[in-house]
Amino acid sequence: MPTTYDTLKIEFNRCPPDCRLCEEACAREKGESLFSLSRIKPVHIPQVDFHSAMTCVQCSQPRCQQVCPAGAIEKNPDDGVVRIDESRCVGCGLCTLACPYGAIYYNHQTQKAFKCDRCNGEPKCMEACPYQVITCVNNSRVLSYLGEEDFISPGARPCRGCPAELALRFTLRVLGKNTILFGAPGCCNFPMGFGTRALTNLAYFPCLLTNVASSMTGVSVYYKSIGREVNLVAFVGDGATADIGFQSLSGAAERGENFIYICNDNEGYMATGVQRSSTTPFGAQTATTPVGKVRHGKEQNSKYLPVVMLFHGVPYVATATMAYPEDYAQKLVKAMNVKDGIAYIHLFSPCVTGWGIDEDKGLDVCRLAVETNYSPLWEAEHGKVRLTQEIANPKPVREYTDLLGKYSHLTVEDLEQVQEFVNARYDLIKNLSLISPAPRKA
Amino acid sequence: METKLESTQQRKVLTGNAAAAYAAMLCHPDVISGYPITPQTEILEVLYRFQAEGLLQSKMVEPEGEHSVMSIIIGASSAGARTFTATSAQGLFFMFEPYISAATQRLPIVMVNVNREILPPMSVSGSGQDIVLVKDAGWIQIHVESCQEILDTIIMAFRLAEDPEILVPVTVAYDGYYLSYFSEAVDIPAQEKVDEFLPGTQRTPRIDPETPMTMGPFVSVEMFTEYRAKHMAALQRAKVKIEEIEGEFHQIFGRSYGGQIEEYRCEDADIVLVAMGSCVGTAKVMVDRKRDEGLKVGLIKVRMFRPFPREKLVDALSGRKAIGVIDRNVCFGWNCGHLLVELRAAPTNYLGSSIPLLNFIGGLNGGDITLQHMERVIDTVHLAGQGKPFKEVTFLDLE
C-alpha cells in the first residue's frame, strides 16, 4: 500500500525578489560557510518576475536512487526522506543529473553529492521563511487507504466529470479484490460493460432495481454458511435505495444481514433522463418537476435516508462525499469491519448532467454541500452519532445552490425554504450527536 | 405432526404440504427462504420445525415479502447454493419480477407453488389460476396429482434443474386445499437412497471473487437472441431429461409418473380427457366406471406444462373421436381455459380441425370438481365424438 509522508511545499512566485533567508538558514543548520552548500536554492529570475525556491520533494520513486551506481541513496520508509549515505557515495554526480527538480547538488571539495534531509522533521528553511512560502504538509493520508489496482477499466463511460465514477473507483481500491460488487439499473451500472467486455475485473452482480439488498442477502447467508469472508458491497443509486428498492433494504436491515450498502445519491433518476426521486430536494428542477408558469420545481423536501437507516438500528451508518476522500476512506474501512449487520454509507454525489453543473465543478459542489451544511458529514457507530467534519462557520446555502442549474429559477422565498430545510437537517444530526444511546448488545 | 426422521424408509400420513417439506429436507438445500401465504404456509412451518429439531441444516431466511424471497434465492443460487422456496398466488405475483430473472439467469432453483385463486373477488381457495399466469417466465413447470407425487417430484426436480444440460429452475405445482391440506399415506424414502439419487455436490458458482465475472451484462442483439435460443433448447432437452431422470428414480424407489404426461387407459380409447392436478384422480375414477359401462374413454394427465409436451400429446391424441379438456383456470381473452389454448396451439397440424375439442372449466375459487361433473364431461365428450353438436366451453359450476 502506498504511504504518504510530510513534504515541504513551496508556493511558486510568492518570494520577495532576492530573498535568500531559507538558503541562509539551511547552510547555517548544516554548518556550511558557503550559501552554495545549502540544500535549498532560491530561484530568482527577474526577467520574467519569477521568484521561488527549489528543494527535494522526497519522491516516492526517486530517480536519483535508481541511477546511483553505488547504492548510496535510499528512501527511508519511516519518514519518507531520501538520504545519501556519504560513506558509499562515489561522487559520480549521476544523481544530480537525474533529479527532475534540480534538487541534488555536488560538493566539489568533498566530491560527494548532497541533498535536503528535511532536517529530520524540523525544516529550518520553513522556520526561517517569514512569508509562509514554505510549509510542511501532509494534506492527506488518503493514499494509504488505496490499493494499487483500479478495478474499473479506463474508458468507462459515465458522463465527463461524473463524481460517481471517481467514487466507485475509489471505493473499490479501498475494498480490494476480495469483493463482490452489486449494482442496479442506473448510472452506477456501467461496470457491467457490454457483451464480453466488462468494465470491471471484479465479480459483478447486477441486480434488479428492486432487489439489491435481498440479492445480497442470498449471497451473504450462503457465504456465511460455508465460512467464506468476502466484501459484499452495493454501489447503487437513490432510486434503488430510497424508492423502489427500499423494502428489501429495510427488511435486510431488520434481519441484521451483513454487507456494505452504498447509496450513490444523485438526487433523482439520472440514467432515465433526470426525473424526481424521493431524495430530490425541494425546488429542484427535473423532467417531472419542471419549471413553468404555475409550478417551479419539486414541491416536497427530500427523504433523508441515512437517518431512516440509523433508526433501523444498523451497526454503522455514515454520510460521505468525494470532496472529503479521507473521511470517506475511513468510513469505508469501518464499514468493512462491521460483522453484525448492514454498514450503510450515503454518498452525496452530484450529477453534472442532471443538475446543470460545469464538468469541472463536481467536486466543488461536493465541497460546498458540506461547507454549507447541505450535506453534513457524520457517522453513527451502533447508534452513536458523530459529526466527522464540523463546519465552524457554515456558508449560506445560496453559495451551493448558485452553482447548480437545477436551482437557477429559485426565488428569494424558495431559497429561504431551502436554507430552513438545511438548518433543520443539520440541527437534527447535531442533536442526535449529543445523545449517547446505550451500545447495542452484539 | 411427528418430525422424527429415520434413516430407513418409512410410511406416514402426510398433508401435501408436509410431503413437500419432507422432500425439501431430504434434498439438503443450502438456503431456504419463504414468506407466509395461504395455502403454502404449512411447508414453511414444517421446515422451521425440522430445523428446530436439528433435522434440517439449511440456512433459512424469512424476509419481508416474496419479492425478497426470490431475490434471496437468486443470490444464494448464484453463489452456488442449492435452494428451495414455496409460495402461492399473490406471493407468486409479487415475486414475478425476480421469478423471471431466476429463469433467464439459468439458476437451478426448485420451488413449490401451491395453486390458489387470484383476487378479487376475495379468495384464498384452491384453483389452478395463479400458476398458469406465469407459464411463460422460462421456468419448467410440473403439475402433480397426489401427496406422494409431490414428494417424489420435488426430489426429481432438483436433479432436473441442476442437470448441466438443463440449468433451468423448476416449479412443482399442486392444487391448494385439495393437495396442500389433504392427508394421505406417503412413503418417505430413506435419506441414503435420496443421497444416492441426488448427490449433494457443490454447484459451480456464478458469482465468486476468485473467478470474477459479470452476471447478465448488456449484450448485442445476436448474443441476446443466442441466449434465448439456448434457454429454449434447454427447455426442449428437459422433455427427454425428465423421462431419463424418472427412469432412474423408478429403479431406486420403484415409482414413476410418466414423465411429461401420464396416459391412463388410452390404448383403444375413442374419447380422451386431458387434465392437470388434483382433479385427475377424480377423473380416473369416472374413467374406470365408464370403462366398466363399455365406453372407450381414456385420460391424459399433463404433468409437464412447461415445456409443453407437444409431441407426446400429438401422439396420444391423434385419431381420437373427441377430446375433453378440463381447466381449473380461465384464459382471459381466449374465452376458455389455458390448457385448451395450449392444446389448440400444439397439435392442430396433426389432429386436424375435425376432432371436437371441448373445454370444461370448473373448480375455481376452491370449488369441487366432482364425480358427477366428470360423468357429465365424459358423456358430453362422448356425444360430441358421435358427431352431435357441442358447446366449445362449458362452465361446470354455471350449469
Task: Describe the protein's architecture and organization.
The complex is a heterodimer of chains A (442) and B (399). Chain A is an alpha/beta fold and 442 residues long. Chain A folds into two domains: 7-140, Alpha-Beta Plaits (2-Layer Sandwich), CATH 3.30.70.20; 143-434, Rossmann fold (3-Layer(aba) Sandwich). In chain A, 29% of the residues lie in helices and 17% in strands. Chain A is built from 14 helices and 16 strands. With 399 residues, chain B is an alpha/beta fold. Chain B folds into two domains: 10-253, 3-Layer(aba) Sandwich (Rossmann fold); 261-398, Rossmann fold, CATH 3.40.50. In chain B, the strands form three sheets. A seven-stranded mixed sheet of chain B has the order 3-2-4-5-7-6-12, with helices on both faces. Chain B is globular. The mean pLDDT of chain B is 94. The A-B interface holds A 177-180, 191-195, 198, 200-208, 210-211, 213-226, 230, 247-248, 250-252, 254-255 and B 30-31, 33, 59, 61, 63-65, 67-81, 83, 97-98, 101, 207-209, 211-220, 223.
Radius of gyration of chain B: 21 Å
Residues in helix, % of chain B: 40-55%
Strand segment count of chain B: 15
- As residue ranges, the low-confidence spans of chain B are none
Please give the order of strands in the largest beta sheet of chain B. Answer: 3-2-4-5-7-6-12
Entry keywords:
heterodimer, A: alpha/beta, Alpha-Beta Plaits, Rossmann fold, 2 domains, eight-stranded mixed beta sheet, two-stranded antiparallel sheet, 14 helices, B: 399 residues, alpha/beta, six-stranded mixed beta sheet, 15 strands
